[in-house]
UniProtKB/TrEMBL annotation:
<protein>
    <submittedName>
        <fullName>Heat-shock protein</fullName>
    </submittedName>
</protein>
<dbReference type="InterPro" id="IPR018181">
    <property type="entry name" value="Heat_shock_70_CS"/>
</dbReference>
<comment type="similarity">
    <text>Belongs to the heat shock protein 70 family.</text>
</comment>
<dbReference type="GO" id="GO:0140662">
    <property type="term" value="F:ATP-dependent protein folding chaperone"/>
</dbReference>
<dbReference type="InterPro" id="IPR043129">
    <property type="entry name" value="ATPase_NBD"/>
</dbReference>
<keyword id="KW-0547">Nucleotide-binding</keyword>
<dbReference type="InterPro" id="IPR042054">
    <property type="entry name" value="YegD-like"/>
</dbReference>
<dbReference type="GO" id="GO:0005524">
    <property type="term" value="F:ATP binding"/>
</dbReference>
<dbReference type="InterPro" id="IPR013126">
    <property type="entry name" value="Hsp_70_fam"/>
</dbReference>
<dbReference type="Pfam" id="PF00012">
    <property type="entry name" value="HSP70"/>
</dbReference>
<keyword id="KW-0067">ATP-binding</keyword>
Length: 415
């Protein structure tokens, strides 16, 4: 029975196996152990995944890009269909095709087939909805079984990150694990030590788990709505009355998992009708151009890149000249905080809930372990560390800690 650990993330995916007495993440795309959670369908061709999918879209190959696939789990979108060439494909099956591709690459790299998987999952797929949460896990289990996994189990992603972190500590610690990913923010309070690491049953060491459906793609969305979408007409007035332009188009265009909803003739007609009645028709003309050219993902990629650049360097300029000559948006760190600061605050609030669930105070936490790409946002990091001022801050592999921990868990369960 060959076992693996699979971290299917909103932005990136990893898969690992136990080899030579240690967990090892497998190379899934070239020399990379991470592969973007993206798939591209081109008419008459096999679907491509990962960086190749993103490149095909950017290079203008005709077809349909889908990214942030995990976001539809727990939503009504999972059972809906989307047009792919001349057929309509369920989002559930799109996820299956993507994960089947990941599994095949991992098996080629490992030289063996995997029939057992420990799948990572967020603490909550959906906030405050236990039944929806159960359905999301059941759906992911069904998808895993449909692509050839015979034995499927799950582990919370922050617990998996804790297992990775525990490999490197020298003494017992009470750690709060913060996994701030692309789609969710998840927290666990876990008692860790070199001695406890070898135990098969760790249930007694887990004091609390909590999470919220907020992640990096939500920061992209709010930044886009605040800085880019007004250039396409969001918030602008209609000619008659005191109404503003309908905002649904802009929210879909700013949300990774909803962009493809716009790519149809009905939406284009509606936008054109709105443009004729708008006080600023030139702005709606820009929106029409983006949707007609199916360039929504290009826009989302540029916003994501600007978010990262602003976090790292303090500012960024989005050159939108491909929409209209000379069009651009400027973003600085103050603007990033202004548009997304509430998200950071809501994420940090979960630390208080975790402490309450564990029955400990902030001063009892020895270490705050940060993983996930969105921990790179300075105001998110500041919000988290402010909650635990006495805790030592430790960082893991931003995109690999969860996958490594899941691989450890897979080896333990298969033993």
């Amino acid at each position: 029975m060959a076992a693996c650990g699979l971290d299917f993330g909103t932005s990136n995916t990893t898969l690992g196996r136990w080899q030579d007495g240690a967990p090892r993440l497998l190379r899934l795309e070239g020399g990379h152990v991470t592969i973007p959670s993206a798939i591209f369908f081109a008419p008459g061709r096999e679907a491509v995944i990962g960086r190749a999918a993103m490149s095909a879209y950017v290079e203008g190959v005709p077809g349909r890009l889908m990214r942030s696939l995990k976001s539809v789990l727990g939503s009504s979108l999972l059972e809906e269909t989307t047009p792919v060439g001349r057929e309509r494909v369920r989002f559930r099956d799109v996820i299956g095709r993507y994960l089947a591709g990941v599994k095949a690459r991992a098996e080629a790299e490992a030289g063996k087939s995997f029939d057992t998987v420990v799948h990572g999952r967020p603490v909550h797929f959906i906030d405050d909805d236990p039944e929806g949460d159960r359905k999301a896990e059941d759906a992911l289990r069904g998808i895993a079984e449909s692509i050839g996994f015979r034995h499927v189990s799950f582990q919370y992603e922050p617990i998996a990150a804790a297992l990775d972190y525990e490999q490197g500590i020298a003494r017992e610690e009470l750690a709060l694990i913060a996994d701030i990913g692309g789609g969710t923010s998840d927290f666990s309070i876990v008692r860790l030590s070199p001695e406890r690491h070898s135990r098969a049953d760790r249930a007694g060491d887990i004091l609390a788990n909590d999470g919220v459906r907020i992640g990096g793609t939500d920061f992209d969305r709010m930044l886009s709505l605040g800085t880019v979408m007004p250039l396409l007409g969001l918030g602008s007035p209609m000619r008659r009355g005191d109404l503003a332009v309908p905002n649904a188009y802009f929210h879909d265009l700013a949300t990774w998992s909803s962009i493809n909803r716009l790519y149809n003739s009905k939406t284009l007609r509606e936008i054109e009708e709105t443009r004729r009645d708008a006080s600023r028709p030139e702005l709606l003309g820009r929106l029409h151009a983006v949707v007609e050219g199916e360039r929504g993902h290009s826009l989302a990629m540029e916003v994501e890149g600007a978010k990262i650049a602003t976090s790292e360097r303090g500012g960024a300029r989005l050159d939108l000249g491909w929409i209209e000559g000379g069009l651009a948006a400027e973003i600085d760190r103050d603007g990033l905080v202004r548009h997304t600061g509430d998200l950071a605050r809501r994420i940090a609030e979960r630390i208080g809930r975790c402490l309450g669930q564990a029955g400990v105070g902030a001063d009892a936490i020895d270490a705050l372990f940060l993983t996930g790409g969105s921990t790179g946002l300075p105001h998110v990091r500041a919000a988290l560390t402010t909650c635990l001022p006495q805790a030592r801050v430790a960082e893991g592999d931003t995109f690999g800690s969860v996958g490594t921990g899941l691989t450890l868990e897979a080896a333990r369960r298969a033993a």
